[in-house]
Amino acid sequence: MEAGTLRNPVLRARRNLTDRIGDPLLRGLSGLAAALAAAVILGIVYEVTQLAWPAIQEFGLGFITTNDWNPVTKRFGAAPFLYGTVVTSFIALALAAPLSVAISIYLTELAPRRIRRPVATLIDMLAAIPTVILGLWGILVLGPFMRDTIQPALHGVLGFLPIFDGDPSAFSYLTAALILTIMATPIITSVIREVFETVPGDLKEASYALGATRWEMVRQVVLPYSRPGIVGGSILGLGRAIGEAIAVAQVIGGATLINASLFHTGGTLAAHIASQFQNSAGLQKASLAYLGVILLAFAVLVNVVARIIVQRGRIKDVDSGDLDLSAAATQAQPS
Amino acid sequence: MSADPHTLLLDRGNLERRRRVNRAVEAVSIAAAVLAVAVLVIVVGSVFLKGVDALSWHFLTTPTALFGEAGGGISNAIIGSAIIVGIAAAMAIPVGILVAIHTTEFAPPQISHPVRFVLDILNGVPTIITGIFVFGLMVEGDKQSAFAASVALAIVMLPIVARTAQEVLALVPGSLKEAAHALGIARWRMTVRITIPTAAGGLITGSLLAVARVAGETAPIILLSSIVGQGNLTDPGEALASIPYFIFQASESPKPEAHTEAWAAALVLIAFVLALNVVARAFYARSRNRMGA
Amino acid sequence: MSKRLLSVLVAALALAVALAACGGSSDGSGSTGSSAGGGSEEAGAPLVGAGSTLVAPLMSKWQSDFSSKSEITVTYGAIGSGGGIEQITSRTVDFGASDAPLSEEQFEEADAQGEVEQIPWALSGTVPAYNVKGAPKDLKLNGDVISGIYLGTITSWDDPAIAKLNPGASLPSTKITPVYRSDGSGDTYAFTNYLSTVSPEFKSKVGTSTQVKFPTGVGAEKNDGVAAAIGQTDGAIGYVGLAYAVSNELAMPLVENAAGAFPEPGVKSVEAAATAVEDIGPNNEISLADLPSTAKGAYPISTYTYVIVPLETEKAAEMKKFIEYAITEGQSYGTDLDFAPLPKQVIAADEEAIAKIGS
Q: What pTM did the predictor assign?
């Protein structure tokens, strides 16, 4: 609709001064705000790249595959942290995605109507827990539990696998991956649940009419229908895990080497930057900013892909006519 | 609804197995939901049980003690967090709502789609990177300040406020806007006096959720407001203490007393965040009725 | 009414923009906004510093005592020596504190915005504290053993090399977990300086710096983090500032010095080390890693800790007062906190250095 300009010259002449100023003013101000948002994102990319420039010049693209971080010889590389980020995030994804599907099945198919809302809200609350508190819990509760119970058990049963070989440690890839799982699950669940709820009832009824059990109906109707949502939601959760800095920094132990054992200490892109940035100067600081460039590219890419997939999945549905307050909408930002 | 239609089933002999698989999957789903809720209860429960002992009026009203000394509290962190988050909200909420107004009221699709895309990108930026950005912009060459931390938090809040505002503004019934236009009401007047008040509930909800989100932000604070002075400082031009940073530091300490203080501060923070979340959602649920009209 | 609402919106936005503009511009001086702080103008500008965690316990005492005596508030962030060097180099703080002296390269970078100098203002030591169930108190260790542990060649507490130094002691077979500083640390500098001096293998494999790449072990941040990691892990050994080992009641080993003796780590043995090294290097750098073999009671991993301050600073008067306080009155708090008093020749050199500030 045209912005309030009236075609009728009589009516237009009668518009008072306030209106004549007000319309363009609001349009201008709000446009300025929109431009500001765009300026911020450009500013972020520019600033981080600029800080990273000395390292980019020094190491080039080889930085990404260099498996070293040595402040004495001044040789820095992203490989140990890329490894840590990938390992912890993908383990979190592998655990959180099936878990989220299961939870969503419960919430949409199995739960008594009265408790659906409360339980869904409780799971959204999990996403609202500040990361530093999850990290605190990780250091003082989960970590020791991993070291004293879980890791020895895994080592005892599956110790022949390199990933479970090694001495138990409270600070480890595994502890970090579990914390990330806790963070990602509510986000993935909220997306999948929303998509599950839009599966047309008649498709489900038809399946039941043909004699399917509940699980068979879900497998044949709900899951295929919801595939974009499941994939998109999972990638959204992955994006959260990739960018998570604080809780991971608290529980992963700050190592700068690659290690096959999940019980070992390690580092991720975000966590390493968070713990080292203030301390470093010169080439080391630029290298940390370079890690930031890689992290930014990775996280933004994943997040955008996720949202595209989820939006595409949504177009099929009727407009929910409601405000999306789910974890996916409000808590997906990695911190 | 759909009862188990075994009256229609063809007995192929594998019904029992299919039923067993079904029951197994159902059990797994219930277990998954229970697990998720259990984790929430365990984490929040731990915070409560371990922190409630140290929580006292003294703890809440005394500033952090000097290094190595006992008997301090978190009053400076509470004040600092309030100032940092308050200034961030004052910046992000108006700007976020304005962005939403622009994309829903004024912008043609060529503008509103890129803007939505930009907000999506902003939402995916890890907050440590936002911290580095503001560090390079405001702290390098100058000094740390609570205001710099506020700017970083405002950037984090912006996409959340803008996105929820966009959704709410889009839900305002077209009939209201049509009526306004038919009466010759200027667009700005309609937006300010009709659209926004109608959407007010959702706008407030989105803002409260954004505040709850950044109240616990730590990464930018480490870079922007971590070297803080003693006592209950209030100048935003200086670095101020904050609750998340207090928890972060205390969590890495070897002393059990520090851990207890960390739990207590975590209890304060989690209570605040969860309360805001609950209030925001409940508020929206009640004000939804107005929109349906 | 609606006009008012609109103008309120505009005003709020304008206010936000204005705040951003005035907060973001750096006028070159470091004291913007200090006028809104608590003290009156005659009280003197507040000093902001950051760095070494080793000196943090003593600094804490200095802060409260100095501010009550002089009305100058000192704010300090214990973020590690590496952080202190970085912050003073970019002039985000008024002074940096580091146990590691600046290298030539670091001086160059710091001097880019104006010459800086480093002044030793406290004296303590770094201790390889350990937490091993069943191990004796006062376990004897030497440089070779400690480097072996940190290089990963000695992996359990009942290793023959350790047994040889402790004849008759019963040592458990627990695995050794070496703990190191993952952040930029003056303690790392002191520790690796010592190990590089006594072990050529360590020197070539790891080297000396505030941040090194250890081939094995667990990383933790700041002295607090290392102390926490040691306390939580059976079999752990980690290097921490003397004050931290004492206040956390961690077991401290007896480390062999160049004279072949095993002095008890503490104020006395640190003092003995300082007395044994009279020469003050360029830029007031003093290394206590290479002690003469005549110093029987000297603790081999002692270290000075420095304040790094720019010569050109708006807060020259306050800075001079503070450093002067630290090396004279401030030293009296040292003994209780496991800091040895500065030797006379160091105080004299410091006075000369202080005089240069603001000139």
A: 0.87
